[in-house]
Amino acid sequence: MKRYVYINDDESSHDLYCDNRISNRKYTLLNFLPKNLWEQFSRLMNQYFLLIACLQLWSLITPVNPASTWGPLIFIFFVSATKEAWDDYNRYISDKKANEKEVWVVRQGIRKLVRAQNIQVGNIVWIQENDEVPCDLVLLGTSDPQGVCYIETAALDGETDLKTRVISPACMGIDYELLHKIKGVIECPGPDRDIRRFDANLRLFPPFLDNDLCPLTIKNTILQSCYLRNTEWACGVAIYTGNETKLGMSRGIPKPKLTAVDAIIDKLTGAIFVFQIVVVIVLGIAGNVWKDTEARRVSLDLVKSLYAKFIDWDYKMIDRETGTPSHATNTAISEDLGQVEYILTDKTGTLTENKMIFRRCCINGVFYGSESGDALKDVELVDAVSSGSADVVLFLTVMAICNTVIPMKSKTGDILYKAQSQDEDALVRAAAQLHLVFFNKNANILEIKFNASTIQYEVLETLEFTSDRKKMSVVVKDCRNGRIHLFSKGADEAILPNACSGQKTRVFIEAVEQYTQLGLRTLCLACRELNEDEYQEWSFLFKEASSTLVDREWRIAEVCQRLEHDLEILGVTAIEDHLQDGVPETIETLRKAGINFWMLTGDKQNTATQIALSCNFISPEPKGQLLSIDGKTEDEVSRSLERVLLTMRITTSEPKDVAFVVDGWALEIALKYYRNAFTELAILTRTAICCRVTPSQKAQELSVCSIVEDDLILLIIVSMERKK
């Protein structure tokens, strides 16, 4: 269902959409007692105790005083209800603080301070640096002349890298004094929980823009609970408020947490009840075994709260860089930390430091950095740059500008780079160290400096990276001669198959294999020159695809593929990402404790395998054995899966450390057609490596592991705020 948001119109959206009041509370004063009792009696154990207590009201069949049963039972419920009330009160305090926070909002053409809960859809909201975003906004302006701002999305997706957001082209150039007077309409979809997608269109009313339609994407938004960083101010129009924000739609209604211990107690209670029925029928007497568990149940609720406090009080569990201590946000499931059986972990930023260093490269078949291990110190490469080698300069140019990096000057005059990706940051810095410096970006004009001369490129289009495309491209015009170029970088399987006919790619394939054997991250760089007519025809299709509200992502990918072909492969880069301190020792200790590990990564198989060996996930031969599941068709994957499964069944009784590795393509087929066999394999193995997987496949992996055993406990370490 579409939504039309009228910008800066105080009347049109006031009654159509909800206000910005957020509520994470589970109870109200009126429904607390019945709702809490319903939740407590939804547990089999409490139903059992209630049945016993009711039976003891019948004096003919019980020799004990009913007060001796009802008293402890009421006390048990009182303790549980008190704990739930305290947790809900803390949620209320948190909501109240967020709702009553004052923010700047434009009302009747004037900026006013209002409470966050009073923000309405269509209001223009202003936020300052380090402020939390109060609702979902479409950016209209920022303090940066290029319309860029930086946000921290850790509360949304757990990622600590700053992300770049930019105002739409329609709002470029609007003066600061006029931002609060903007009028227009945004056509967007109804509220949803997808934080990575926003397909909408913006139309500003005269005099700002004469009804031109401008497409909007997630890059033009800042979502609720994000923080504005490294940007003095930003303003935007509220499109989703309150519980209709993307975070609010994902939040849902708090549900009772049931730990593994609680589940076991429920099962044991059910077994006890069945046993008692059998005893009654066979022996004719009533069992009264509940007394043995009465004190234990009260202790569990009290101890759960104490567990959570011990976590808060542990001075060793602290982020030493920021001074942030640990905090248990839920008191109901803390004992599950002692029940962990499986750890699912990402690689980049979790096992590794996420501090990328440019190490080696292959340019037009020539390998640099192989001897010293550092291409930036390779004399051959330095000489090639100094002599102005055309191949090397073009390679460095693609490294420098095929990205979304923003250069900024510090107070001392040094150039600082703001990048969403650490890989892009490493490539731009490496190019700068080789004297090709990306030093300025003004709107769509990029400026690079090489050997004392300044070169300008105009960015015509940016074809953004997606996990499905596995590459990104920019279409630029060389301001010196007017030629249009397509610069691309991405995974080898996304770039090399699109090489122009006649170009030999074997040397680049060998470079990729060599670098991945060393555990380095690889990217292939390519380019293509476009003629004016071809670009104009393609640009029309691209803008049309970018403006559609139905299947926009799929249509954009299809149009991009029309341009990203017949590429001239320039070379391969290799980037190193160091392991974090103590990772191998920690993993070895956890494995000795019987915990199983799964590593889910988007890297190539060789890179993932080398990292797994370095982290002590798997043991080298002959102590360990790594089995591979591969294939491009159902039959190939089926045969490979059966072979690995047979080997795993045989070796389960041996002391040998056996693990398996599967790539994204084979994993997709296995999860779709051979889920039962893959689940059996997941039970048998202690270590698994899933490489070349997309975020959606990682989510499917979680669903597979969650059904491995009924009482399986998972600890997921994917993009946590501190990853050590």
TrEMBL record:
GO terms for biological process: phospholipid translocation. The chain crosses the membrane at residues 268-290. It is found in: Membrane. GO terms for cellular component: plasma membrane. Keywords: Membrane, Transmembrane, Transmembrane helix. Residues 5-70 form the P-type ATPase N-terminal domain. Residues 100-162 form the P-type ATPase A domain. It comes from the Eukaryota. GO terms for molecular function: ATPase-coupled intramembrane lipid transporter activity. Pfam families: Cation_ATPase (PF13246), E1-E2_ATPase (PF00122), PhoLip_ATPase_N (PF16209). This is Phospholipid-transporting ATPase. It comes from Carya illinoinensis. The lineage of its organism: Eukaryota, Viridiplantae, Streptophyta, Embryophyta, Tracheophyta.
